[in-house]
Amino acid sequence: MIAIRDVSVSFGGVLALNNLTVNLADSVVGIIGPNGAGKTTLLNVFSGFVTPACGSIRAFDTDLLAMRPHQRARWGLRRSFQTEQVVDDLSVADNVRAMLDSLPVTSRSERERQIEKALTYVQLEGKADELGSALNTYQRRMVELAKTLVGSPRIVLLDEPGAGLREEEVDALRQTILGIGEQFGAMTLLIDHDVEMIAATCISTVVLDFGELLAFGPTAEILKDDRVKAAYLGIEEAE
Length: 239
Ligand SMILES: Nc1ncnc2c1ncn2[C@@H]1O[C@H](COP(=O)(O)OP(=O)(O)OP(=O)(O)O)[C@@H](O)[C@H]1O
Ligand SMILES: [Mg+2]
Prior knowledge:
alpha/beta, Rossmann fold, six-stranded mixed β-sheet, four-stranded antiparallel β-sheet, 10 strands, 40% helix, globular, binds adenosine-5'-triphosphate, binds magnesium ion
């Protein structure tokens, strides 16, 4: 369970998050909203890239914001980025291994076991020795995902992992996200503009609009909400 209380972030005059208060409890929670709504900013507050002006986040009874970013990673916070961060001249396995370097996984055999489990889970076990540069867009996304799954994750934050993927790739991504809770024991927060993806994976969904909580609840109900539809129609017209 994650309790977000009164979290505000401003960049100059822009209120990117305005007193956000919401409790998240489901295994996969969606975060949606138009461009600039504050979705990535919220993940940045979780991971420590952005320090909020006020507010708190308690995650599984731990004061997340009291920890420094590297402590949050050790605690089990993981994220993928809106622009993927795969290193071209490292092998696939080394890209994942680099993530484990800063985490307290003691034995070498345990590290290797976790890397293999994560790569197998994202169906890249046959690519472990290939360079990052040899991968296509989907495979790069999967490496990015595998990096979030090593070192006993507790919370996995995914920022538009489906961006730029083809339909059948999005289907595979969907299945992959759905299994994270069971396979790795982590809760997932998923930002995506693809409403079908959100509907198929997220039990509950947060809707942000101009840094405000526009709506929160079971995903099916949220997606039927007229205010939410209006916010989305806004972006569909704009894109
Ligand atoms: N580092 C920053 N400096 C200044 N303004 C920022 C910064 N990061 C975000 N913002 C502003 O804060 C607001 C929220 O941005 P954010 O990136 O969180 O939106 P988002 O919901 O992730 O949008 P998108 O769907 O386009 O990714 C926007 O107005 C954005 O321009
Ligand atoms: Mg964003």
